[in-house]
Specification:
- The complex is a heterodimer of chains A (351) and B (320).
- Chain A is of the alpha/beta class.
- Chain A contains 13 helices and eight strands.
- The radius of gyration of chain A is 21 Å and the shape is globular.
- In chain A, the strands form two sheets. Chain A has a six-stranded parallel sheet with strand order 1-7-8-4-3-2, sandwiched between helices. Chain A has a two-stranded antiparallel sheet with strand order 5-6.
- Chain A has a single domain (13-348), classed as Rossmann fold, CATH 3.40.50.970.
- Helix content of chain A is 42%, strand content 10%.
- In chain A, helix 2 packs parallel to helix 9.
- Chain B is α/β, with parallel strands linked by helices and 320 residues long.
- Chain B has two domains: 2-184, Thiamin diphosphate (ThDP)-binding fold, Pyr/PP domains (Rossmann fold, 3-Layer(aba) Sandwich), CATH 3.40.50.970; 197-318, Rossmann fold, CATH 3.40.50.
- Chain B has twelve helices and 14 strands.
- Chain B has helices at residues 6-20, 44-48, 60-73, 91-98, 101-104, 134-138, 151-162, 212-220, 239-249, 264-276, 297-303, 307-318; strands spanning 2-4, 24-28, 53-55, 76-80, 114-119, 144-146, 168-173, 182-184, 197-200, 205-209, 226-230, 233-235, 252-259, 285-289.
- A five-stranded mixed sheet of chain B has the order 9-11-10-13-14, sandwiched between helices.
- The longest helix of chain B has 15 residues, at 6-20.
- Classes of the chains: A alpha/beta (351), B alpha/beta (320).
- Chain A binds chain B through residues 63-64, 92, 113-116, 130, 132-136, 164-165, 167-170, 195-198, 202-204, 264-265, 269-270, 326-329, 331-333, 336, 341, 343-344, 347-348, and chain B through 29-30, 32-35, 37, 55, 57-62, 85-86, 88-89, 124-129, 260-261, 290-293, 295-300, 302-303.
- Bound molecules: thiamine diphosphate and magnesium ion (MG).
- Thiamine diphosphate sits between chains A (93, 132-134, 162-165, 192, 194-196, 257, 261) and B (29, 58, 60, 82, 86, 89).
């Protein structure tokens, strides 16, 4: 037998809105102006939330916090495509998705004060708690997708994770399982190109993260993660495919972590200012503003007005969060299990 | 002698041993360029190069498993797991392989490596960053578990661990990293594994603690006639040191940061009951966390054994 070509693969990259704010009309998703403006509002809200969270941390009013700056398009664009009945399994850096999905803002802040009562996601939202152990939420999403298929529910499941997570066995095991069972799931990787101090090139020798899906038998696509329309379009398509029995998709949103890994980190130790500066002009909000301005939907004044409104919303949320009474010792035991053990009961009484 | 904190003492031990023994290689997440998230490995990449200080991808099972292969091949790897809460995804490698390689190859291969990981609560960090599940690891035959309680013990124990022929899990009390400063000799010294240290001498009650709890215990027992045994090695722990103190005092309080049920304190209490029950004048008491997951920052002070609870236990056993 001679050697023969077994397979060749292609990996595609999707961009709709370029850094100058110009769109590729053929790829532009159908979105009324009001919806686009809503995306803009959510991105501004996310940025405002993030800036406030960082400053609250600096003032000692919040615990360690992982900024999302630069990732607003990846988060808002993807979450915007979801239906309320879809399920979401986040990592810990998707506050923009949480805001888009309507998570109460005081509660989001409360979580980052170190108050686990905030992990109780409101009953009307199908969102799993924040997941700190990197990548470990991805198999849960796959499990939920198995259950969705079993119940024949018309919903899809989304797993969010970072570039670092793609090195974990959990990622690969979950992707493989999803491929084998053709599950209704969308894997959304926010490739912000850093995992704390480890740059993407030291995380993987692959040319893209998207191509990892090919090995598991389903589509992977890289999208410009700072392009809210591309992210939205890719997510929407992947969700439709998932719901119509077409199986999983991996979406790699190529973006950039503009801030430190967390407020406990100092990125100046491991990356250059020039690298960060180069990404500043590709800011996802700036880009959308350019687009909106060209359509005469945006002006500096309108932008300021929107930012002022977001500041007001966050101010009110901070007040509400800070008015919450701290948890008491008995709350250590809340929900540890359906029925406390006799020893836990005793410990709860202070023994 | 220099006054060092624990971060500096561990850094010094690693650097000294790497200079002395070219088989010692570090690997883990952010250990190189960043110097580790707690800066414990700061400067070692610059000093020893990228072949000896490996910034790995984010993959704990691969870090642990690769370290096993390196050790079997003849190196002395020092894998770092960034926080104890992330050792769980490397558990299979540690449990099923590192600890058993010597026995399952009947001595053909061995696994001399030191797994370093920060552990313990009280640093107001996110979920899974404040775990103290040492007892799980103490139930693994073939694995030694060590927990220094300050800069001096950290350096001496780490040097001993790095020269041990078998795998050692080295638990670094995160809360104490920069809290304590002590005189630390600059040169080489080794604190033998398996030996406890009498951290304070007294006659009326024995207090047994380790790692993160020792500093709190020493503060709490001020004004009491307490013998304080600093375990240092959790498995195998120093039975003779414990029994020596118990025979003297007849009263025992064990202070354990972790949840109560099946913690290391239970093993210690059972051993005392087996070996020295007739010397006891009071029930053995344990001061521990409750049987709940480690909470986030807002509740952590309610979770960790407090000085008040430690003193209440002392008062109780002293009533007998
Ligand atoms: C299993 C696990 N290992 C290590 C850590 C510590 N840690 C927290 S975030 C992080 C980097 C994550 O990188 P990535 O997946 O790219 O997400 P990003 O932080 O960039 O959003 C690390 C190493 C963790 N939380 N979980
Ligand atoms: Mg990342």
């Amino acid at each position: 037998m001679p050697e023969e070509l077994l397979a060749t693969y292609e990996v595609r990259r999707l961009g709709v809105l370029d850094p100058n704010g110009e769109v590729d009309q053929a790829l532009m998703p159908e979105l009324p102006d009001a919806e686009i403006w809503r995306m803009y509002q959510l991105m501004v809200l996310s940025r405002t939330f993030d800036e406030r969270a960082v400053s609250l941390q600096r003032e000692g009013r919040l615990g360690t916090y992982p900024p999302i700056r630069g990732q607003e398009a990846a988060q808002v664009g993807s979450a915007f495509a979801l239906a309320p009945s879809d399920w979401v399994f986040p990592s810990f850096r998707e506050m923009g998705a949480h805001l888009t999905l309507g998570c109460p803002i005081p509660q989001l802040l409360q979580y980052w004060t170190g108050d686990e009562r905030a992990q109780k996601v409101p009953a009307h939202l199908n969102i799993f708690p924040f997941c700190v152990a990197v990548g470990s939420q991805i198999p849960h999403a796959v499990g939920a997708a198995l259950a969705v298929r079993y119940r024949r529910d018309p919903v899809a499941v989304v797993a969010y994770f970072g570039d670092g997570a793609t090195s974990k066995g959990d990622f690969h095991e979950a992707m493989n399982l999803a491929g084998v069972f053709t599950l209704p799931i969308v894997f959304i990787c926010q490739n912000n190109q850093w995992a704390i101090s480890v740059p993407l090139k030291n995380q993987t020798a692959s040319g893209s993260l998207a191509q990892k899906a090919l090995a598991y038998g389903f589509d992977g696509v890289q999208v410009d993660g700072n392009d809210v329309f591309a992210v939205y379009r890719a997510t929407k398509q992947a969700l439709e495919k998932a719901k119509s029995g077409g199986g999983p998709t991996l979406i790699e949103c190529l973006t950039y972590r503009m801030a430190d890994h967390t407020t406990a980190d100092d990125a100046g130790r491991y990356r250059s200012n020039e690298e960060v500066a180069a990404w500043r002009d590709r800011d996802p909000i700036l880009r959308l503003e350019r687009f909106l301005a060209a359509r005469e939907l945006w002006s500096v004044e309108k932008g300021d007005e929107e930012k002022g409104r977001a500041t007001g919303v966050i101010d009110a949320a901070v007040r509400e969060m800070e008015a919450m009474p701290p948890p008491g010792a008995a709350e250590l035991f809340d929900g540890v299990q359906a029925k406390l053990t006799p020893r836990q009961e005793e410990q709860k009484r202070g023994r | 002698m220099a006054q060092l904190n624990m971060v500096q003492a561990i850094n010094q031990a690693l650097g000294d041993e790497m200079a002395r023994d070219d088989r010692v290689v570090l690997l883990g997440e952010d250990v190189g360029r960043d110097g580790g998230v707690f800066r414990v490995t700061e400067g070692l990449l610059e000093r020893f190069g990228a072949e000896r200080v490996l910034d790995t991808p984010l993959a704990e099972s691969a870090i642990m498993g690769a370290a096993i292969g390196m050790a079997a091949y003849g190196l002395r790897p020092v894998p770092e797991i960034q926080f104890m809460g992330f050792t769980y995804s490397a558990f299979e490698q540690l449990f099923a392989h590192a600890a058993r390689l010597r026995s399952r190859s009947r001595g053909r291969y061995s696994c001399p490596m030191v797994v370093r990981t920060p552990y313990g609560g009280g640093i107001k960090a996110p979920e899974l960053h404040e775990e103290s599940t040492e007892s799980i690891y103490c139930q693994i035959p073939g694995l030694k578990v060590v927990a220094p309680s300050g800069p001096y013990t950290a350096k001496g124990l780490l040097l001993a661990a790095l020269r041990d022929p078998d795998p050692v899990l080295f638990l670094e009390p995160t809360r104490l990293y920069r809290l304590l400063r002590e005189e630390v000799p600059e040169g080489d010294y080794v604190l033998e594994l398996g030996r406890a240290r009498l951290a304070r001498a007294g006659g009326a009650v024995t207090v047994i603690a380790w790692g993160s709890m020792l500093e709190r215990v020493l503060k709490s027992v001020e004004g009491y006639d307490a013998d304080v045994v600093d375990l240092l090695t959790l498995n195998p722990f120093d039975i003779e040191a414990i029994l020596g103190s118990v025979r003297k005092t007849g009263r025992v309080v064990i202070v354990q940061e972790a949840a109560k049920t099946c913690g290391l304190g239970a093993e210690i209490a059972a051993t005392i009951a087996e070996e020295a029950i007739l010397h006891l004048r009071a029930p053995i008491l344990r001061v521990t966390a409750p049987d709940v997951p480690v909470p986030l920052g807002k509740l952590i002070d309610h979770y960790l054994p407090s000085p008040e609870r430690i003193r209440a236990a002392l008062d109780e056993v002293l009533q007998y």
